[in-house]
C-alpha cells in the first residue's frame, strides 16, 4: 500500500466527500473453528461474543495477562462453531503464535491462518453504498453497521462487511487473493463516475486520526491497555473470565495513571508521534499520533498523558523541534459521522 496515489489531502477529502478505495490485503485473517470455538474466542478477546449474533462483527482487544494489548481486531461470528478474526498486518505472526498457545486448554478448536489466501479491499465514503450496490445482488441498505453477509461483488464470491477505519460509512470486502487485481480494477472502473479514487496509507492515517480511531503501536501496545486508550467499551467485565480481566478491572476501579487525550494545536504547528507534552514546564506525556487535519486545516493529535490533565479545555504545550507550541485538550472524536 503506497503512502499516496495522488496526494494525501486529495485522497482524504475524496473519501470524506465521495468515496475512496483502500488496498488492505496485508491484513491478517484467522478462522477459528470447532465445537469449542465460541469458548476459545470468548476467553481470547475482551468483548462479550455471547452478545454477538450470527452475521455480526465486533471490535475487540486481545490482551495479555497484564492487561496490555497484544492486538486490536475485528471478530466476525458466522455461528457458534465458526469465527473469523482480522488482525493487524505487523502482528500476524505474533498473534497466530499467541492464539495457538492459548488454545491448548480447549479440546476441539482449530486456528487456521488464511492471511495469504484472503484479499481485503475497503470502499469508504458517502457514495460507497451507491457504487457497491450496482455490483452486488445483496441489499446493502438492509446491511447495518457491523453486520456482514456473503454474496458476490463483480461475480466474485465475497464477504461484505459494513465496517471501516475512516469514520465514514463504507464496506470491507474479503475474497480470494487470486482475484485481488481483477476486483481492484473493476471497483475503480465502476466508481469513476462517482468520484471514487484509490487511497494510500497517508490518508488512511489522517482519516482515522480525525475519527480518533486507535492504531496499534501508537494508542495501543502491550504496555498501553484498553482502559488507558479510551476504548473501555470493548471490555465486557460481566461476561466471565478472559485473559487480562483481573488487571483491567483493577485499572478501571481506580488504578489508572495515564489516559489517551485528543488535542488541537492553537497555533499553526504539526504534532507527530513521540513529541513531548508539557504542562507548566513539566512533561506530562507523549503524542501517540499527530497530523495536519486536511478537513479542519489545523494540527490535531492523540496523546497519552497524566490522567489529571485529561480534561476538555485544558491548555498544554507540544514540543516540536525544541520549541513548545500551545495546544488544547478537546472532546474526541474530532470528526463524527455516526451517533
What does this structure look like?
The protein has 339 residues and is of the alpha+beta class. The chain folds into two domains: 19-195 and 225-253, Probable tRNA modification gtpase trme, domain 1 (Gyrase A, domain 2, 2-Layer Sandwich); 254-330, Elongation Factor Tu (Ef-tu), domain 3, CATH 2.40.30. It has seven helices and 17 strands. The chain has helices at 8-17, 37-44, 92-102, 128-133, 180-191, 201-210, 245-255, and strands at residues 20-23, 28-33, 56-63, 69-79, 82-87, 110-113, 118-124, 148-153, 156-161, 170-176, 197-199, 258-265, 276-279, 282-292, 299-306, 315-320, 323-330. The strands form three sheets. Strands 8-9-10-7-1-11 form a six-stranded mixed β-sheet. Strand 9 and strand 10 form a beta hairpin. Helix 1 (8-17) packs across helix 6. It starts with 7 loop residues before the first helix and ends in a 9-residue tail after the last strand. 45% of the residues are buried.
Question: What's the shape?
Answer: globular
Q: Characterize the largest beta sheet: strand count, sense, and whether it forms a barrel.
A: 6 strands, mixed
CATH class category of the largest domain: Alpha Beta
Number of discrete helical segments: 7
CATH topology of the largest domain: Gyrase A, domain 2
In the CATH hierarchy, the architecture of the largest domain is: 2-Layer Sandwich
Tell me the number of structural domains.
2
